[in-house]
Amino acid sequence: MVKLTGYKKVKTAVFISGTGSNLKSLIKFSKTRKAPISIDLIISSNLKAKGLKFGRINKIKKKVFSFKEKHKIENQILSVLKENGIKMICLAGFMKILSRNFIAKFRGKILNIHPSLLPKYKGLNTHQRALNNNDKYSGCTVHFVNSRLDSGKIILQKKVKISKNETKDSLTKKVLVQEHKLYPKAILKAFNL
Ligand code: GRF
β-strand 37-44 against 88-91: which pairing, if any? Predict the structure, then answer.
């Protein structure tokens, strides 16, 4: 459980690499009264990430890091997080793997959303793998991040039925709709709200 201190919202950074539709839904959620977090910083591993536009639109500070020298970059990110008083991190389509050392600095304070029913299909290409295996269901999971890929404690999951003529694209879209609902719910649960 993440603890709320006082009545102030917990300053949160969202890490992205691409479209940022989960970022968009998290920003919307953070502006509601019941949300325990505010989104004060967006970190992107990709200068061309479409999601960066949500920073512009919502006047949220953005920083882009190339991740070429991971150790160095992570230390720079840790400094930026500190400068901005960030106490929590939400990974949302962030395509880089954070080091054990980085995660240890935010132990229990990093959440991730993953497009499968973990522990099934850790890693990439989850929807195609579910289709290849003729699974009846796919879905999404919000979990705490630990040093093993997609393996931290599960907070919430949502199942999605795979229909007969499902394609990778249709399944991606269907699961994304659920992701946008699940992440806010999981944050409330992580705060015991
Ligand atoms: C989502 O499916 C998320 O679960 C996965 O990457 C995708 C990111 O989508 N980790 P978006 O950038 O939030 O639109």
Answer: unpaired
